[in-house]
Design brief:
The protein has 140 residues and is an alpha/beta fold. It contains 4 helices and 7 strands; from the N terminus they run H-E-E-H-H-E-H-E-E-E-E. The strands form 3 sheets. Strands 3-4-7 form a 3-stranded parallel β-sheet, covered by helices on one side. A two-stranded antiparallel ribbon has the order 1-2. A hairpin with a 2-residue loop joins strand 1 and strand 2. The chain starts with a helix and ends with a strand.
């Protein structure tokens, strides 16, 4: 699932109204929607795409649109049979992984900082991979 239309409508309306608290710690202010749309235009650059916390139905972690998911859908719709996403960051790319739980065409890998021990690591999270189609294709 890429992005739910109702969620996009919510962001557009919040922008028109001057802003809104989307979720805990994530605020859409004047100009945030335009900035999110401009960021989508960077998805084909060599830089890590922003937005890895944004989920198909909601903002999260200061992310409104998940540019990694948009890039993956573009690649799949352009003829790629399978895509791998490697998201190296301090935080887990929960939105990117969630976007492909039901896909057997996308491998997501999100090594991130262990806030307790302060080291970059990979840990097994079978609980997150509960849907049969994408079983085993998310590595955190």
């Amino acid at each position: 699932m890429l992005i739910v239309q109702e969620y996009i409508n919510e962001l557009v309306e919040a922008d028109k109204e001057g802003g809104k608290t989307i979720c805990d710690g994530t605020f859409l202010n004047r100009g945030s929607w335009d900035a999110a749309l401009l960021a989508v235009g960077t998805i084909l650059s060599a830089m890590k795409p922003p937005g890895h916390h944004a989920q198909p139905t909601q903002a999260d972690g200061y992310c409104f649109l998940n540019n990694a998911c948009i890039a993956v859908h573009l690649a799949l719709n352009s003829g790629c049979e399978k895509v791998a996403v490697v998201d190296i960051d301090v935080h887990y790319g929960n939105g990117t992984a969630q976007g492909f739980y039901e896909s057997n065409k996308v491998l997501t890998n999100s090594p991130h900082m262990n806030m307790v021990h302060g080291v970059l690591h990979i840990h097994k999270v079978d609980l997150l991979i509960s849907l049969e189609m994408g079983r085993g294709l998310a590595i955190t």
